[in-house]
Amino acid sequence: MRSSDRNRPIRILYVEDDPSLRELVSTYLERIDSRFSVTTEPTAEAGLDRLENAVFDCVVSDYRMPGIDGISFLRAVREQYPNLPFFLFTGEGSETVASKAVDAGATSYVQKGGSEVYERLVNRVQHAVARRRSARQAQVTRERLLELYERVDGFYLVDENWTVRYWNHEMVERTGTQVEDVLGERLWDVFPEAAETEAYERYHEAMASQEPTEFETRGPPPYDYWIEVRAYPTDEGLSVHSRNVTKSKEREQQLQYRNELLESFASTVSHDLRNPLTVAEGNLELAQKTGDFEHLDEVAQAHNRMRNLIDELLHAARGDDLEPSTVSLRGITPDSWETVTAEGTTLEIDDDVVFEAYESQLRRLFENLFWNALDHGGADEIRVGSLEGGFFIEDDGSGIPSEHRTDVFESGFSTDIDSPGYGLSIVEGIVDVHQWEIDVVAGRDGGARFEVSGVETSKPPQTE
């Protein structure tokens, strides 16, 4: 962010029907960050009118208001201002409200509380506004760069019959096709493989509609690289500008994978901390009531598990776990099993393979499947082994009915009324981050068998 942006005012529209809260919240926000300038309105209708007549950097709104509620207000704002940060700031603590807010496109959902909540709200507003300003500045910069790149990018002209009329030097360098070999020839005769690509369809649509088209595509072999294409209809035919964006596309994909990894990791930790916390609280209560200090061993184990989870979160935040590493089935399985309380349940490892994975994420996957087998399946035995291009985790528990096998990975779905239903959703998220696939089928002994495929596995190195 430019230094000038750091000092720019942040204009906030705060919609709240309670006049005392309007005054209190606006005072707190402006006191915490002197850049904040808060305008208040008592209703969503008044807020929409205000948005039409003034410019704001973000909207903060209550949920339960007379007339239009906060969710409906959010939807109305999104129709007109799809990228404007919107925060639902409400006393409603319902997960249903939070889910509706996220589905409607809220930037964040903040529950009202003590004075520390205002610090949290200010922090989120600051980050959201900074991201939006940076994105807008990046867009302006990108448009200016594109104007500059016009002079050096690939460029060619075809007439209405697709005969090539101009072919610049960059196209020669990129394709290896000389000017004399392409001028006067039909584009699709020179590059017949291109007739099976997106470019073929988009060019024909542009020519027929006389509307410009812009897209990114990967060329067919031997032109296996990403290009950004902008094609403009002209009186003579079509002018095509193209730019090799392979490196930036790869960086974009890598960043996307890393962001997905961090999001998945954060949701995993928040879910998995509940299990050891519940174990610790239960055993501590037993020790206090019975005087049997053996229960404190379970408390210590649970605390150790929570400590490990926190350490792993810190590693991820520092970027220590953003690159995959080589893991083995025989290595990750017992490591994950150590964190599970499983009296009377045995673990068998059939064989071993090695593969690339995000190790802490993979451990979360195994732990969640182990807990699922114990808590929901009542398993006495759990087996782990390799598949062709993957691995499996199988138990001899009660299994998963066939009619539920496509539903178990949905967030919030559970056949147990007391379970929040997040564990298998987290498992699927981890699988997606690795670009694998997961299926659940009936196990050998009637239990559940989870098969992970799409994994590039190999035999472990031989030891002397």
Structural commentary:
The protein has 3 domains: 3-147, Response regulator (Rossmann fold); 154-244, PAS domain (Beta-Lactamase, 2-Layer Sandwich), CATH 3.30.450.20; 252-453, 2-Layer Sandwich (Heat Shock Protein 90). Helix content is 46%, strand content 20%. The protein contains 16 helices and 17 strands. The strands form 4 sheets. The chain has a 5-stranded parallel β-sheet, sandwiched between helices. Strands 7-6-10-9-8 form a 5-stranded antiparallel β-sheet, sandwiched between helices. Strands 12-14-15-17-16 form a 5-stranded mixed β-sheet, with helices on one face. Helix 2 (19-32) packs across helix 6 (116-149) and helix 14 (329-337) crosses helix 15. One of its GO terms (biological process) is phosphorelay signal transduction system. It catalyses: ATP + protein L-histidine = ADP + protein N-phospho-L-histidine. It comes from Halorubrum glutamatedens.
The total domain count is 3
Q: Do you know the CATH topology of the largest domain? A: Heat Shock Protein 90
Mind telling me which CATH architecture of the largest domain this is? 2-Layer Sandwich
Give the proportion of residues in helices. Answer: 40-55%
CATH superfamily of the largest domain: Histidine kinase-like ATPase, C-terminal domain
What is the first-to-last residue Cα distance? 56 Å
Radius of gyration: 29 Å
Alpha-beta content class: alpha/beta
Name of the top-level CATH class of the largest domain: Alpha Beta
InterPro entries: CheY-like_superfamily, HATPase_C_sf, HATPase_dom, His_kinase_dom, HisK_dim/P_dom, HisK_dim/P_sf, PAS, PAS-like_dom_sf
Organism: Halorubrum glutamatedens
Pfam families: HATPase_c (PF02518), HisKA (PF00512), PAS_4 (PF08448), Response_reg (PF00072)
Keywords: Kinase, Phosphoprotein, Transferase, Two-component regulatory system
